[in-house]
Amino acid sequence: GKRVAEALCIAYENYNNVDIRIARIFNTYGPFMDPKDGRVVSNFIVQALKGDPITVYGDGLQTRSFCFVDDLVEGLIRLMNSNYTRPVNLGNPDEYTMIEFAKIIKKKVLSNSDIVFQELPVDDPKKRCPDISLANKILDWKPNIMLDEGLEKTIEWYRSIL
Question: What's the pTM?
């Protein structure tokens, strides 16, 4: 679906002689995420804050990368202000296994939650990590807010609403 949408944008650009921008957005997190949205960051934080078991799917060795929302917005603004009209990956290339990430959340929240494992969904990818070399080259962009700082802001917000 995403690739088809990109192809449609390029066709629309050519047919109508308009400017387009295509951002490929990777896992983004931060304050104001819906606590029930089902994403790993919100799930783990909410589970840890409530003292519920932290649910990891599969063996927990699949990897994800996490980009703080402020960094993503900066990348989107730079892309919109550029003349580049082909797909650009925006995300943070630092990878964490799900088991590592669960332990990071547990430690930052000071939670006694157990980490429990459930069956891995069939369509769950083993790795999600953006190559942001193009964004760095054409937009002079890379994430500046590392996971530790971003999680502090995000956890603080979740504490305030739970």
Answer: 0.93
